Amino acid sequence: MRRPLNFVLVASIAIFFGLSALAATKPELQAQFRTWLVRDFWPEAEAKGISKATFDRAFAGVSLNFDLPDLVVPGEKAQTPKKQTQSEFGSPGKYFNDKTINAVTAGGTARAGQFARILNAVERKYGVPGEIVLAIWGRESGYGSVKIPNNAFTVLGTKAFMATRREMFREELLAALEIVQKGFIDAPSMKSSWAGALGQPQFMPSSYLAHAVDFDGDGKRDIWNSVPDTLGSIGHYLAQYGWQKGRDWGYEVTVPASVSCALEGPDQGKPFAAWKKLGIARVNGMEFPSGEAKREGFLLMPAGRHGPAFIVTKNFYVLKEYNMSDLYALFIGHVGDRIAHGAKGFSTVWGDVGGLYRSDIAGLQRKLETKGYDAGGADGFPGFKTRRSIGDWQEKQGLAPTCFPDKDLIQTIR
Predict the structure, then answer these.
(1) Residue 89: its pLDDT value, please?
(2) In 3D, which of 353, 378, 366 has the Cα closest to residue 413?
(3) Whole-angstrom Cα distance, residue 214 to residue 302?
């Protein structure tokens, strides 16, 4: 909200950006942005084949949006915020709350019949089951019901000028211009999320160029309004990242105490038969499919010993290419099972763990790395490398491995 420039505004801007001293007022930043567009960004866009007419239409009336997250005033250093909202910082179980799971499942079940012809065509062409496509569609945009009101050029322009990942957003802004230049959509109609993701599948502009398809044959790749284009584009995306036709994403399992949770990860795969020999079994009592016996499976324990465990296939990691989160990929696979087979909740409950700040986890990761462990970098995300490093450290201390960060570990690992 725009207000008269005064001392309160100046102070609020400084606090908002985490600055020790105010670098620039909002009007000054807006002027810098317009200069940046003309002197810095336009020459690169022109070199990429963008016409001046396209460029001017895209940025007509565009100004910086100071309400977007992860902004850093040019010349200032980014700071890790204390408050975090990402699911990975809380109990993983919160990601699978009944309200969200039930809504996406019910919506997918209803649309499985409604769009059966299109979904069957997508599966025939790309090999991706309809329930997986539906689960992604539901998770990303509520089956097209979620309003995506942001002007993509406002979002991407702001982030390319002053986000923590400016270079990445600069590339996405160029890709957005290419979309308009090629006539796929006009600039004012290109709506995005606050992160710059487009349409019902929530593709970044570069992903749109690489993966969006015209599945209804009208000559456009309209992921904003066309259901066939949306479903076809999701299927095409997963196929291009290596979806293996005829394989499931994974299976919930029991993991005996004799099997270390530190065996988790996509680089520690074993044939399904080998996991079975270690005593790992499906929770429903069924055998693993016979065709999987010699194929590679991977242990997944998103909450360590504090939650459900899984043996997943390579298709799980294809789902992660859509969103680089174990919890996201697990959500899609699980909801897909509910849509297709009426599956119920996980057999093992999620423990009440979490509650750590990202900075706490980053500090723990740095401590592990000084001890020679590969924690995957000090990014504050407890990914599989962090989880198994914790388990390895616990085992060496004679402790029962849990493979998940907690407050006691923050104090203990020094």
Answers:
(1) 62
(2) 366
(3) 36
